[in-house]
Design a protein that fits this description.
The complex is a heterodimer of chains A (720) and B (341). Chain A is α+β, with helices and mostly antiparallel strands and 720 residues long. Chain A has four domains: 189 residues, no CATH class; 126 residues, no CATH class; 177 residues, C8orf32 fold; 124 residues. Chain A has 24 helices and 18 strands. In chain A, the strands form five sheets. Chain A has a five-stranded antiparallel sheet with strand order 9-12-6-1-16, with no helix packed on it. In chain A, strands 8-2-15-17-18 form a five-stranded antiparallel sheet. A four-stranded antiparallel sheet of chain A has the order 5-10-11-7, with no helix packed on it. Chain B has 341 residues and is of the alpha/beta class. Helix content of chain B is 46%, strand content 14%. In chain B, a hairpin with a 4-residue loop joins strand 3 and strand 4. In chain B, helix 11 packs across helix 15, helix 12 crosses helix 13 and helix 13 runs antiparallel to helix 15. The longest helix of chain B is centred in the N-terminal third of the chain and has 19 residues. The two termini of chain B are 28 Å apart. The chains are: A alpha+beta (720), B alpha/beta (341). The interface between A and B is large, with 39 and 40 residues. Chain B: This is MoxR-like ATPase. Chain B: GO terms for molecular function: ATP binding; ATP hydrolysis activity. Chain B: Keywords: ATP-binding, Nucleotide-binding. Chain B: It comes from Glycomyces artemisiae.
């Protein structure tokens, strides 16, 4: 009785330490799951998803922790119920109330994955975009709790949050800054959880601790830890900077593989709308209440194949905040009246849109609503107005970075080349040429709202070159803008066509007559500059052939034409783009070592893993068979035999006694002789075990593992 | 250092070392004597070595034996053979419905010659009492055995009378002819350390029985050990070493039977003590001075099964106490090093 009373405080203290360790592991893993979930939250708008994933991690872990001592089926079942409740709560919190809640729930659950992947950054926390991160966080926390708390496998418990972290990084892609702090915190938490459970054998609660032999004395263990930490730090200090320089590519963006929203015909080729708008200029398209005068863009067309102008890039689902925009300085409340299609008018550059589900074209930054516009559709858009500085553009070179904006389809009419030559010889700078082209078209061609639609090359040739009597040399903004853009490209100016509306400040109804198309030219360092090639009202056009024939007479020989004198800068000289300060040198020097060396190092390190495992096993065997009391060595021999049998695929259940275990081990056709008797003695009468018994047990263990070696699977023999 | 000795399961604490009194030599001596006795009984009860050894284990554990089987399987013969092999007094009581308690325990009679009441001991006053077909007696008579089985004494007219030691009750009962019988109550079943079933002999043993029916009578069996030796051997069994983890193992087994879904009443602490005593004897009979889990497993069925009261629905479905015990062993991990949890 006295002995029992003496044991109580000791057992109590041990229990408290054990509980503290479990609590520390639980706290670490909960935070790891929350951090891993928060990786994806970086591309979400606002702080809501941070709170949701943190709640999911805590909730799932709390359920698993509370039921850790209950039957194994109970925790997952309860966690499933908790997950369902939490998902419903998350959906209810993020629901905007536009649809009935049950419909929203079904829609969110069915479309969660595709919409999460297609949602544009920053993702709006909506029912369909929060389900995936919340679900994955909950799942990771549940698994982590089961592995680490119920089964005591802390390292395995770190795996779900690590996978979640990786999934978060994949989802984020290149759309967020490198999260160094969270990554370091994640690693520190994992290390803390592992360190807390890394108890020496005599303090470990598991039965294996008994047979792993006595712990090494404190000083060597401490020195070993310090040496290991120093080696790890040194390796990291050497490798991390080099590895960081090697990483020159951004991670892939999963959104690139997602099917974008589909466009209708009038959205694919919105330039054809100009003819209708010109013919019926009084039809009301939408009401607008704007903060200032602005051009609201409907579509930006950068690709021309000789037949139609089309927009480049795909539309991506976005939240209320359009990524990559500046501070909003312009606002507009729009209510649709007669405007159809899916394209949404908005002043450049849109920053936020409310009241409408939105997809955005990241190339042109135009907007689209997947459900299409209908009468009564209303939305609010804030834009960061883009005002290119004409003064800066006057001395700027053309921005030739995007080859698509200067691509000209084959078969351009001769009149276009003639006009291009005229402009090129008449003007020196890119801006002067762009403005000169606009002036040329405005002075030599007439506006006619009745002109037939068409902006393919033959139509543009007819517009530019046919006689007035035949119906040529007159057109709508469709013809002016399209012809301008093609000729500009012939000159070497990057151009595009924009379809939109001129909207005055204040409240007004925008009619079809305000709709037009205009060309824009891209200047290096300035951006896209709008030009107006339309003739002034009531202007009498000058026949273009008169000007062009005069140009041919005055054209100097190529030798005389040095582009404005020998000292003038040639703005089209592509060699000037090769400044020598671009990325090539960087990529050549990156890393200092060829990439194959790093691959070789990686392979070498991987090859070392089996060696390390083998060495660890050999050391453990040596410790088990040679250290400790005779009884401990016999127990170690028994553990070695069981481990060897397990490697060969024969596992002994926990309820088997030594005789039953021996019968089970005998299926491997290798005798373990007196070992069952010895292990019984070691376990239940340690005083009865002698040194010779321990030696005999060690011999049996060594012999047994040697004899069943061939029954171990080949890959297991090689790797472990 | 002291702490390490106390906490490490493979290092014997000093207080435990002091309790270990039996050496390997003593255990060997016990095993030899046990084997001599068993071999003697085996000459009469052919082909039943295991049952004979379990019965002898119960005797040296100072427990009582309930033999249950169909008529003619050698229950009474085995009981008589055990009695004959021990050179003590033995009596046989044939239980019948009209048997009175005084017929078992004895009676006080007035002696006119001496003018005083004299106690006439009943047949229960013997070293080995064979209670044949115990379930045929009335509960009142059955209960007359309760006190003597538990305390080794009989109280008649307020005066206790000690029965000779060692004292062993070997009861038999027939499980098939239930008409006119009285099922032993749970309290009385709990008094029996083991409940054994003799069973039919194997073919070779049965042929051998036929060959020498007359020569193999218990009457021809010479005593192998005397009652003093039996008492000494029983005393030795009390000093068998039991490792600390085994106590927890035993309690976990008992708990497993108590928490079994098919069980109404599980194993009592008395049953757990009985198993420990029996396992101690069994260990010694194997020449070991300490208990191992194999001893526990060998005896758990005979010791536990008859003490387990099944739930009515489980009993209707044909569940048995032996199945419950087997389930319990599958639920509890053996406290061996490195065994899976």
């Amino acid at each position: 009785m006295t002995a029992i009373q003496r044991d109580r405080p000791k057992r109590s203290g041990r229990r408290v330490r054990y509980r503290l360790r479990v609590a520390a592991v639980a706290a670490s893993l909960t935070l790891m799951c929350a951090l891993a979930g928060a990786v994806a939250a970086r591309v979400y708008h606002g702080q809501l998803l941070y709170l949701l994933v943190a709640g999911a991690a805590f909730g799932a872990f709390a359920i698993g922790f509370a039921l850790r001592n209950r039957p194994a089926f109970l925790a997952p079942s309860a966690s499933l119920v908790g997950l369902a409740a939490y998902l419903l709560a998350a959906i209810a919190i993020t629901d905007d109330g536009a649809d009935p809640l049950p419909a929203t729930i079904v829609d969110a659950l069915v479309n969660a994955v595709p919409r999460t992947l297609t949602a544009l950054i920053p993702v709006e926390p909506a029912p369909d975009t929060v389900v995936v991160p919340v679900f994955l966080t909950w799942l990771a926390a549940t698994l982590a709790c089961e592995f680490a708390i119920r089964y005591g496998r802390t390292l395995l418990g770190c795996l779900p949050p690590a996978l979640l972290y990786g999934a978060g990084l994949y989802l984020v892609g290149p759309n967020a800054e490198v999260g160094t702090v969270s990554a370091v915190a994640f690693c520190v938490l994992a290390a803390a959880a592992l360190a807390v459970t890394a108890a020496p054998p005599e303090r470990r609660p598991d039965t294996d601790a008994v047979v792993d032999g006595p712990a090494p004395s404190r000083a060597p263990a401490l020195m070993g830890m310090v040496a290991t930490a120093a080696v790890l730090l040194a390796v990291m200090a050497l490798l991390v900077p080099v590895a960081a320089r090697l990483v020159t590519a951004s991670p892939g963006d999963p959104r690139e593989y997602v099917e974008p929203p589909q466009l209708t015909d009038i959205d694919l080729n919105p330039l054809v709308r100009i003819a209708e708008w010109s013919k019926y200029p009084d039809q009301d398209l939408f009401k607008a209440d704007t903060s200032a005068d602005a051009w609201m863009r409907l579509a930006v067309l950068t690709e021309y194949d000789g037949t139609t102008w089309q927009a480049a890039g795909d539309f991506r689902t976005a939240g209320t905040v359009i990524p990559g925009s500046g501070d909003a300085s312009y606002s507009a409340d729009v209510e649709i009246i007669g405007l159809g299609g899916k394209l949404v008018p908005a002043a450049a550059d849109p920053a936020t849109v409310t009241g409408l589900p939105i997809a955005v074209n990241l190339t042109t930054r135009c907007l689209l609503t997947p459900d299409g516009l209908a009468t009564g559709t209303a939305y609010h858009v804030d834009s960061a107005l883009v005002a290119a500085d004409p003064a800066a553009a006057e001395n700027a070179r053309a921005n030739l970075a995007d080859a698509a904006t200067v691509a000209v389809p084959p078969g351009t009419p001769e009149i276009m080349a003639t006009i291009a030559d005229y402009i090129r010889t008449t003007y020196d700078t890119p801006y002067a040429r762009a403005q000169g082209l606009a002036d040329f078209l405005g002075q030599h061609y007439a506006y006619n709202p009745e002109a037939p639609s068409g902006h393919d090359l033959p139509s543009l040739g007819f517009f530019l070159g046919s006689p007035v009597d035949a119906g040529g040399q007159r057109g709508t903004s469709e013809h002016f803008a399209a012809a301008y853009a093609v000729i500009a490209r012939l000159i070497g100016l990057p151009s595009r066509v924009v379809v939109g509306f001129e909207v005055p400040g204040g409240s007004s109804t925008v009619t079809a007559g305000q709709g037009s198309a205009w060309p824009e030219v891209d200047f290096d360092g300035v951006g896209w500059v709008r030009f107006d090639p339309m003739p002034p009202p009531d202007a009498v056009p000058v026949p273009p052939e008169d000007t062009l024939e005069q140009m041919e007479e005055e054209t100097p020989s190529p030798e005389e034409d040095s582009g404005g004198g020998g000292e003038a800068e040639d703005f089209n000289d592509e060699s000037l783009e090769q400044d020598g300060d671009f990325d090539d040198a960087l990529t050549e020097d990156a890393g200092g070592l060829p990439v194959w060396v790093w691959y070789a190092i990686g392979v070498l390190l991987l090859a070392c893993v089996p060696l390390v495992l083998k060495a660890r096993r050999a050391l453990r065997r040596r410790r088990r068979l040679t250290r400790g009391t005779p009884a401990e060595r016999v127990a170690g021999a028994w553990a070695e035999v069981l481990a060897s049998a397990a490697r060969a695929g024969v596992k002994v259940p926990g309820h088997a006694n030594a005789e039953e275990a021996a019968a089970r081990l005998a299926t491997l056709e290798a005798d373990i002789g007196p070992l069952p008797r010895l292990v019984n003695a070691a376990a239940f009468a340690p005083h009865a075990v002698s040194e010779s018994d321990a030696d005999a047990a060690a011999a049996v263990a060594s012999d047994y593992s040697g004899r069943i070696g061939h029954q171990v699977k080949r890959w297991k023999r090689f790797l472990t | 250092m002291h702490d390490t000795e106390q906490t490490h399961p493979l290092r014997v604490p000093k207080r435990m070392q002091q309790q270990v009194q039996l050496g390997a030599a003593q255990a060997e001596q016990f095993a030899a004597a046990f084997e001599r006795l068993a071999a003697a009984v085996d000459t009469v009860v052919l082909g039943k070595q295991e049952v004979v050894r379990l019965a002898l284990t119960a005797m040296f554990a100072e427990g009582h034996i309930l033999l249950e089987d169909v008529p003619g399987t050698g229950k009474t013969t085995m009981a008589r053979a055990i009695a004959a092999a021990v050179s003590g007094q033995w009596r046989r009581i044939q239980f019948t419905p009209d048997l009175l308690p005084s017929d078992v325990s004895g009676v006080t009679i007035f002696n006119q010659a001496s003018g005083a009441f004299e106690f006439h001991p009943g047949p229960v006053f013997a070293n080995i009492v064979i209670a044949d077909e115990i379930n045929r007696a009335s509960p009142k008579t059955q209960s007359a055995l309760l006190e003597v089985m538990e305390e080794g004494r009989v109280t008649v007219d307020g005066r206790p009378h000690q029965v000779p030691q060692p004292f062993l009750v070997v009861a038999t009962q027939n499980p098939v002819e239930m008409d006119g019988t009285y099922r032993l109550p749970e309290a009385q079943l709990d008094r029996f350390l083991v409940k054994l079933s003799v069973g039919y002999p194997v073919e070779a043993a049965e042929i051998e029985v036929l060959r020498g029916t007359h020569q193999r009578s218990p009457e021809h069996l010479a005593a192998v050990v005397d009652t003093d030796t039996v008492a000494q051997m029983a005393e030795m069994a009390k000093h068998v070493y039991i490792a600390e983890p085994l106590y927890a193992y035993l309690v976990q087994l008992a708990n497993a039977t108590r928490n079994h879904p098919q069980v109404a009443v599980g194993v009592s602490p008395r049953g757990l003590i009985a198993l420990t005593r029996a396992a101690s004897v069994f260990a010694l009979s194997q020449g070991r001075s300490y208990i191992i889990p194999e001893d526990v497993k060998a005896l758990a069925g005979p010791v536990f099964a008859h003490r387990i009261q099944l739930a009515p629905d489980a009993a209707m479905r044909g569940a048995t106490g032996a199945q419950v015990v087997a389930d319990a062993f599958h639920q509890v991990s053996v406290p061996l090093p490195a065994s899976a949890a």
